[in-house]
Amino acid sequence: MATPDVRVRGPFITGTGYRMNVLSGEQILALDRKHLWHPYASLDPQAPLYPVTSAHGCEIVLNDGRRLVDGMASWWSAIHGYNHPDLNRAVTEQIGKMAHVMFGGLTHEPAVRLAETLVSITPAGLERVFLADSGSVSVEVAIKMALQYQLSRGNPTKTRLLSLRHAYHGDTLGAMSVCDPVTGMHHLFRSLLPEQLFVEAPSTGFHQEWDERCLNALKDTFYRHHNEIAAFIVEPIVQGAGGMRFYHPEYLRAARALCDEYNVLLIADEIATGFGRTGRMFASQHAGISPDIMCVGKALTGGYMTLAATLCNNKVASGICDGEAGLFMHGPTFMGNPLACAVANASINLLQTTKWQHDVQSIERQLTSELAPLRDLSSVKDVRVLGAIGVVELREPVDMKKVVPQLVELGVWLRPFGRLLYTMPPYVIRAEQLIRITSAMRALCEKHCA
User: Which of 102, 204, 232, 379 could be stapled to 162 by a disulfide with Cβ–Cβ 3.0 to 4.6 Å?
Assistant: First the structure.
């Protein structure tokens, strides 16, 4: 069979503006295979790949016309669905004013409004907002804040971070260092990363009766290593990419008390859990605690643009700026991007003016009802649901090359990993769309039984 001509005869200019030649699905795939490298992917030309033409509401439209119900909300970010008129309007209006301006020495209304709103909706005490490019960068910022704070306060031995086993905090260097060094996605780089401290993750589930013994390892680690620990970083309530594990809020309460006792900062990584995913605006609120530093991202812009923020309390901010340097040593080029801030303001406004709590509760009830029976299947180890998160843990790992096309044939978009088949859909998903997702998950689990 002849190789398709994938040459693109460049853009051209017309009297009405800049346009590109339209590529066929075959051309898109050929050019992609030739030049692009996808996240957590090899260069395998047989890996499943699907050209997307558009997306509306909770559906992704493929180049061949097929429509897939999106059970991933674009890696947990598109909480309002796609092509939302309010978010489209925010981007359109802002781009007519300015798409970007440097944040060093300049400021603007979208960033100021966003900072004020974040302070008002996050746990009490978080008064300063550092805007960053992505979730991983916000974790880097948090780590640097903690280290510079301890150095500025005359604690030069507090140079390490404490993290949980099964943790995932991002893909950049500092963030990788606080991911699980053995079972995590970055174990290949273990010898190159700063050596941090790790403690066993809490074993008491979110819905289980609290077991005080869950704290033994944490208490012991604080007691033995507090002179080394600058901060304890934790994903509140839900350990995401490290296994979709839900743990008891009492663990967070105890962690807050231990950090206070031993002069250790508490960093809450709410990148995956923030903006309503667990049923509360932020997962930390399940425990009624306020961290010293909080990272947010993903759903911050409703999935429209990359933006994150690292918030901290005045103790941290003043501690850093009263130190020898006199300022915080970090500054991304696209910090405070007006376009991203504008759509973030619109996304948060939607949360504040719509019934998202009711929607998430409805999703939780439906996921619980439709996924719970899967526990009876021999291929299934566990089923767990919290807020708009539904997880089926299989006994054996899935084969992505086989499983993803099967799910696409069933009309849904899911991205399983390891032994986990899970969904984190947009909050606006309709019941009939969600049942397509849970039915596809059931079909896949039943096929694994065969």
Answer: 232
CA distance 404 to 258: 44
Q: Which helix (H) or strand (E) holds 430?
A: none
- Rounded Cα gap, residues 299 and 278, in angstroms: 13
For residue 282 the two structure tokens come to 């932020």
Q: What is the pLDDT of residues 13-33, one digit of tens each?
A: 445 566 778 899 999 999 999
Helix axis angle, 431-449 to 400-409, nearest 10°: 140
**Under the phi-then-psi rule, with left for phi > 0, alpha for psi from -120 to 50, and beta for the rest, what region is 317?**
alpha
Tell me, rounded to whole angstroms, the distance of Cα 404 from its chain centroid: 21
Mean pLDDT of the chain: 94
CA distance linking residue 14 with residue 230, whole number of Å: 58
- For residues 168 and 186, the answer to whether their CB atoms sit within 8 Å is no
DSSP conformation class of 51: -
Distance between CA atoms of residues 301 and 298, nearest Å:
7
CB 73 within 8 A of CB 276: no
Domains in the chain and their CATH numbers?
21-83+355-449 (3.90.1150.10), 89-353 (3.40.640.10)
Threshold 0.85, pTM exceeds: yes
Name 386's Cβ contacts closer than 8 Å, sequence gap at least 6: 206, 237, 238, 246, 278, 279, 364
Could you tell me the two tokens for 111? 């960033």
Task: Give ∠ CA 153-158-161 in degrees, rounded to 5.
Answer: 125
Residues of the chain under the 70 pLDDT cut: 1-18, 450
Residues marked as catalytic? 40, 168, 269, 298
Residue of 99, 230, 109, 219 lying closest to 159 (CA atoms): 230
**Phi/psi zone of residue 75: left (φ > 0), alpha (ψ -120 to 50 degrees), beta?**
left
